From TrEMBL:
GO molecular function, one term: transmembrane transporter activity
Protein name: Major facilitator superfamily MFS_1
Pfam families for the chain: MFS_1
Major facilitator superfamily (MFS) profile domain ranges (all copies): 168-395
Species of origin: Acidianus hospitalis (strain W1)
Length: 395
């Protein structure tokens, strides 16, 4: 069962995340340099993509029972394969509609893949599978920009959407193989927001997804306008960023974390250093080093959040928790680009990155209030296992 789940999860995760990330990184460049959108309009367009994802994930998917949710998941996967190539044919008006439709189709896909990855009963096997799932995410984020770079070397930006269509088709096919957990009436009584593990997951992801949303939306524009690089070089820089993210997730897949607290503090510290490097960067080398540093917390943060949810929710509760968690990630993707677009127009993109540092330091303080509960779950499990082994040896 483990190998079967691993094959399906890794393949579909790779295909969906590679194409989804391509949209997130290419859409700002496409709208800015082809349709001449302002910084604010670029931010709002990126937010619209996340809004669609939020509606499907947080409002629809989280409320559906298993059988209905599976049908909705398959329909969404097929719809995404139809919508993705439409970006090639958009103009300055229709790009808003296609972006919203793409977001709506993506909203039910990733939460259900996470839930499927968390079906195993054994905690260590489950967390290893979740870590490998996030490793597949990182691998796709390295491969995706590398493919974009190759495409943009020979073609213009609109063609990128066509070259990624095979990934969307593969995802539609694989969606039929994703299994859904059995649920009962208890699912309706899940208290998600009161769970300290959920609070830990949310605060932890906020500490990184806020700066990450800014990097995705304005990092490429910053590189083009301030460092005078080509579009192909922009996607190569993103590939560099995701390479260190991949290394961090390889580490977690080999050594699933015992302490979420220690890893979360390390991630936030590296995020602060990376943002400072961007703030004081004046050439491509320093900017590249900043992206390399920021890749490590990107690799650590998301796995730590999904592990926190996995440790502190029962199997039948995880769909609601994962859906709401994913929806909150999308809210970040709605609010952050919108606000940062206006801030960038007022103070410039470079200084925009500096304004993020106090925000994540405040989140670090909040994280320390709840993260101990997640680590306590593992300590209690270890203690129970030790007592069980001790009793067996005496017997």
């Amino acid at each position: 069962m483990f190998i079967q789940m691993l094959t399906v999860i890794v393949s579909m995760t790779f295909a969906i995340r590679a194409s989804n990330n391509m949209i997130a990184t290419t859409l700002p460049l496409f709208s800015k340099y082809y349709f001449h959108f302002t910084q604010s309009e670029v931010g709002i367009l990126s937010a619209l993509l996340s809004l669609g994802t939020f509606i499907t994930s947080g409002v629809i998917n989280s409320r559906l029972q298993s059988n209905t949710r599976r049908r909705f998941f398959i329909i969404s996967s097929v719809a995404y394969a139809i919508i993705l190539p439409l970006f090639y044919f958009t103009n300055s008006l229709t790009i808003w509609i296609v972006s919203l439709l793409a977001g709506l189709s993506l909203g039910s896909i990733m939460p259900n893949i996470i839930t499927y990855a968390g079906l195993l009963d054994d905690r260590k096997a489950r967390e290893r599978l979740l870590s490998i799932y996030t490793l597949a995410l990182s691998a796709s984020l390295v491969a995706g920009p590398a493919i974009e770079t190759a495409v943009l070397t020979h073609f213009t930006i609109p063609y990128v959407f066509l070259f990624f269509e095979p990934f969307a088709i593969l995802s539609a096919i694989l969606s039929f193989f994703i299994k859904f957990p059995e649920e009962n009436s208890k699912s309706a009584r899940v208290s998600v927001f009161n769970n300290p593990g959920f609070k830990t997951a949310v605060i932890n992801i906020l500490a990184y997804n806020i700066p990450f949303s800014v990097i995705l939306t304005f990092g490429g524009i910053y590189a083009v306008d301030y460092l005078h690089v080509s579009f192909a070089e922009v996607t190569a820089l993103f590939s560099l960023f995701f390479t260190t993210s991949l290394l961090a997730r390889i580490y977690l897949s080999i050594r699933p974390p015992q302490s979420v607290r220690l890893h979360a503090i390390a991630a936030i510290s590296m995020t602060t250093i990376g943002l400072l490097a961007i703030l004081f960067s004046n050439n491509l080398i320093i900017f590249s080093i900043a992206l390399l540093i920021l890749g490590f917390p990107h690799g650590l943060t998301y796995p730590l959040s999904v592990i926190s949810i996995s440790r502190t929710f029962k199997p039948y509760e995880r769909n609601a928790a994962n859906s709401i968690f994913f929806a909150i990630m999308m809210i970040i993707g709605i609010i952050t680009p919108t606000i940062s677009g206006f801030v960038a127009e007022l103070i410039g993109i470079k200084y925009l990155f500096g304004t993020l540092i106090p925000v994540i330091l405040i989140l670090l303080i909040l994280l320390n209030r709840y993260v101990g509960y997640v680590d306590k779950v593992v300590l209690e499990e270890t203690r129970k296992n030790s007592l069980s082994i001790s009793k067996d040896s005496k017997a």
